[in-house]
Amino acid sequence: MRGPAARVCFMVDLGTQRADIGVIGGSGFYSFLEDVTEVTVKTPYGPPSDSLFLGELAGRKVAFVPRHGRRHHLPPHRINYRANLWALRSVGVRQVLGPCAVGGLHPQFGPGTLVVPDQLVDRTKARTQTFFDGEPLPDGTVPNVVHPTFADPYCPTGRAVTVAVARGHGWGPVVDGGTMVVVEGPRFSTRAESRWHAAQGWSVVGMTGHPEAVLARELELCYTSMALVTDLDAGAETGEGVSHEEVMRVFGENVGRLREVLFAAVCALPENDERSCLCARVHDGVNLGIELP
Ligand SMILES: [Zn+2]
Predict the structure, then answer these.
(1) Among 15, 53, 132, 227, which residue has the fewest nearby CB atoms (within 10 Å)?
(2) Residue-wise pLDDT tens digits, 192-251
(3) Is 257 marked as binding a ligand?
(4) 172 pLDDT exceeds 90?
(5) Of 13, 133, 231, 273, which residue is the catalytic one?
């Protein structure tokens, strides 16, 4: 995978660098853009997974953050999800697209299927999943206790745009809706766990979709998951089970067209000040105790 280093200037003054749309995904999504600016962002929660990489797509300003770091050194449970989302909002982002690799829990969700889930089940075990934990920020402000609505965890507008764009690109199997169960990892599921997940009627299993989605919600960001099925999970196939190599191979085979759909979705999203969804109004009338960036 090509790196962006040749076209990047480091430590740019954040004051001049803004973006409207955020993408949490690997370097395969931005490394070929003509002008990419690398920006280091500090957050009250420590450093994000990596720098932000800012670029422009058809007039839309986009900030990319490699979820696992540019060297892919961060396992799902070590990702600083709070810092990633906070950093994106700090540069102006209000809508986020989150491409990720998932396992299909049913044979009809085979490798290459693109699922745009509308529901999520959290089976992670040890991840901080709120900004509102009573811990003071470095500036001395203290977040209040807040209970954001999460009945529908994904942005309806972002979902509709993504599904339409993927179908318009002739992706093939595009699933509009479905439930993503998020497990702690980094191990894959046992066969029994996988069969149990499938028996609940859940569609796909991943390791990063939570707390990414709820933290985006807490920051009043629109968040849309783009889940590429890279394998059939352990309960849905009869071989030796999922392997990391197979996941990476299938993801690599699909990253080109996933990038095309992602970029088309970026261009089709509404302007930030034209958002009509609930995501932008989650905290209306609520005293947060802290200022969102
Ligand atoms: Zn929204």
Answers:
(1) 15
(2) 999 999 999 999 999 999 999 999 999 999 999 999 999 998 777 766 777 888 888 888
(3) no
(4) no
(5) 231
Can you say how many angstroms the Cα of residue 277 is from the centroid of all Cα atoms in its chain? 18
Cα of 195 to ligand 1 centre, how many Å? 33
The residue segments making up the domain with residue 210 are 5-281
Instruction: For residue 256, tell me if it sits in a domain.
Output: yes
User: 285: number of CA atoms within 13 Å, CB side?
Assistant: 0
State how many domains the chain has.
1
Distance of CA 204 to the CA centre of its chain: 15
Is 118 among the residues known to form the active site? Answer: no
- 187 appears as a binding residue in the annotation: no
Q: What angle do CA 77, 80, 81 make, to 5 degrees?
A: 90
Give a yes or no: residue 286 inside a domain.
no
- 44 C-alpha to ligand 1 centroid (Å): 25
- The yes-or-no answer on residue 231 being catalytic is yes
CA 196 to centroid of ligand 1, rounded, Å? 31
Residue 288 is assigned to a structural domain of this protein: no
pLDDT in tens, 32-66: 777 889 999 999 999 999 999 999 988 899 999 99
